[in-house]
Amino acid sequence: MDNPIVNLEKLSEPLTKLVEVISNGVGTLYAPFGTVRKAKADAKARIIIARADVEAADIQERARARIEFRESLRQENIERISSQAAIELPKSVSEEPVDPDWTLQYFDYAQDVCDENMQKLWSRILAGEVASPGSYSRRTLQFLRTLDKEEAEAFTKICSIAVTLDSDWKHIIEEKETEEVIREMFGGSSPIQHFISIGLLLSEASFINPLETTGLEINYFSKKYSLEAPEKRKSKRFSSVEIPFSIRGFSLIGRELASIAGGMPVKGYIERVAKGMEKKYNIIFHPSGQSNDS
Q: Is position 245 within any domain?
């Protein structure tokens, strides 16, 4: 090679690397070739730096725009929820202050709720907590944050068939009539097991002996019933009136969410249950005035 430097400049990347390795090893050809490559590298570096500065500025601008958009949306969500909460407030509220930790967690979660129906749930919680501090736990706030719109709508439907007993706990009467109504509401399926699995309903049902139901009161929205137990049969044969029926309670979180879910009574439901239990267990449902349950 008469002028190896010129020729080396035209070499491919693999060969160039080989030459550099050799040059480092033998100490020849490196200086002039390396100078050319270094100049090219410096020029390329300046281009990269300039391009990086532009890209960095673009990234910062996009980040600023993203943050502004997100915070504007969050502010809008908070204002909508707060305005709705003002409508939901009762005429009188407790003088007890709302826990600051609860408030911080509430708005930290509520600010990211964009769906209008879900905003209504959050506004009811805020109004309820302002009215009576301690009504809604921070655990319930955390749970509601993970509840999607479809689950919330399904839970509202389940609340539409919930009854309260003497204990004021909400329950579902697990009878054939209830299962039929649930499947009618959900197109042949039932979300009960799902709500058990996520903790809105208790995993274990409670059992009531039909022979011990006299005096038990059941409230279904504005309707209130006092139950009358069947007479104990003298026959020793096992009969349906001696088979306990089951009721499934709502969990603490389920109770708190049920109070703001907005469930509405299902026309004819409680009458169907009463008729079915009278036929199966000989239990009589006596209407006993109006209930304040909602």
A: yes
Same domain, 283 and 175: yes
Q: In what order do the strands lie in the sheet with 170-173?
A: 206-208, 245-249, 170-173, 163-164, 217-220, 223-228, 284-290
Answer with the one of 22, 39, 71 that is the final residue of a domain: 71
pLDDT in tens, 180-217: 999 999 999 999 999 999 999 999 999 999 988 898 99
Do 285 and 180 have their domain in common? yes
Structural domain harbouring 56: 4-71
Answer yes or no: do 167 and 274 share one domain.
yes
- Residue 193 domain-assigned (yes or no): yes
Residue 292's DSSP bridge partners are none
pLDDT, tens digit, for every residue of 189-198? 999 999 999 9
**CA 163, CA 206: separation in Å to the nearest integer?**
14
Could you tell me which residues come within 8 angstroms of residue 248 by beta carbon, excluding any fewer than 6 positions away? 171, 172, 174, 192, 196, 201, 202, 205, 206
C-alpha radius of gyration, the chain, whole number: 35
Q: How many domains does the chain have?
A: 2
Task: Tell me how far apart the alpha carbons of residues 90 and 29 are, in angstroms, rounded to a whole number.
Answer: 89
Structure tokens at 69: 């958009």
